[in-house]
Automatic annotation (TrEMBL):
One of its GO terms (molecular function) is DNA-binding transcription factor activity. It comes from Burkholderia vietnamiensis. InterPro entries: AraC_XylS_family_regulators, Homeodomain-like_sf, HTH_AraC. Residues 147-244 form the HTH araC/xylS-type domain. The lineage of its organism: Bacteria, Pseudomonadati, Pseudomonadota, Betaproteobacteria, Burkholderiales. The keyword GTP-binding does not apply. Pfam families: HTH_18. This is Helix-turn-helix transcriptional regulator. PANTHER family: HTH-TYPE TRANSCRIPTIONAL ACTIVATOR RHAS-RELATED (PTHR46796), TRANSCRIPTIONAL REGULATORY PROTEIN (PTHR46796:SF2). PROSITE patterns: HTH_ARAC_FAMILY_2. Keywords: DNA-binding, Transcription, Transcription regulation.
Length: 280
């Protein structure tokens, strides 16, 4: 997984069917060489490129030889907010296959052959997003108070949310902030913090930390909570992710700008499945 400021990229050269997962981010799922089939509670969807709405429980069915390339958008990002406004009808899954023909499929397919930690994985995802959603460039700047909350949670990764303190920082009431954040991002502040914790956990595994160290540093209540979250979000256990025989992980730092008084939050990490068959 390659983690950038506004999105994370998961790459697997081969991918078998997996149990249902659900996470608070919008996800673009691309079948590198064949169609993929997403099964949700509201039906099944088939295509080469599918956009999945936040918190939609789904399982993926693909031919084992089909590489999987998925981009998970940070709920507080400008693009995620743009898509929330422009995806019609609150659909759980939208087929983007026609828009993905040519450049998008070629770019995502080429990234499958990149070595772990290659910076072009994140760069490829940015090119894919630009090709699919070029109109988002003109989308107005994101709500600054939402960005302040997101920046602080990324910088501090607290044990739990403190809406009252965050509201004081933003200069609005607690109830107004809770409503504003949920309406803009589609997730609650608490859900967003859990997503931030999971992202940080991936980065810590990349630096060689143990499961115990990661659970403590990311403010999960215990290892079981961390494991449940990873299973729900990624369909993987933390022990699988931290096993170098099964997953190749690399980490490199990148700078990013945080909101005022929120410190710095940065980091770029990536992992690739060393033995994709182990996922099946």
């Amino acid at each position: 997984m390659s983690i950038s400021e506004d999105f994370a990229t998961y790459v697997s050269p081969r991918f078998g069917s997996r149990d249902s997962t659900s996470r608070p981010s919008m996800v673009i799922v691309i079948g590198a060489s064949d169609e993929i089939r997403l099964v949700t509670e509201r039906g099944a969807y088939t295509g080469r490129c599918l956009l999945v709405s936040p918190n939609v429980s789904r399982s993926i069915e693909v031919n084992n030889a089909t590489g999987l390339y998925s981009i998970q958008l940070d709920p507080a990002s400008r693009l995620s907010q743009y898509l929330r406004r422009h995806v019609p009808g609150e659909k759980p899954v939208v087929d983007l296959s026609k828009k993905a023909e040519g450049f998008v499929l070629e770019t995502s397919g080429a990234a499958l052959g990149k070595p772990p930690g290659d910076p072009d994985i994140a760069a490829a995802s940015q090119r894919v997003l630009d090709a699919l959603f070029g109109d988002a460039v003109a989308f107005p700047a994101t709500e600054c108070r939402v960005q302040t909350v997101a920046g602080c949670l990324k910088a501090r990764v607290p044990v739990r949310t403190d809406p009252r303190s965050l509201a004081r920082l933003c200069g609005i009431s607690e109830s107004r902030l809770v409503h504003l954040f949920a309406s803009v991002t589609g997730v609650s502040i608490r859900e967003y913090l859990l997503w931030v914790k999971a992202r940080k956990a991936v980065s810590m595994f990349a630096s060689g930390k143990t499961l115990t160290e990661v659970a403590h540093a990311t403010s999960f209540s215990d290892q079981a909570h961390l494991s449940r979250t990873f299973k729900r979000y990624f369909g993987l256990t933390p022990s699988f992710l931290s096993n170098p025989r099964l997953v190749r992980i690399s980490n490199s730092a990148t700078g990013c700008r945080a909101e005022p008084d929120c410190g710095r939050h940065c980091g770029h990490s990536s992992f690739r499945i060393a033995d994709p068959a182990k996922l099946c």
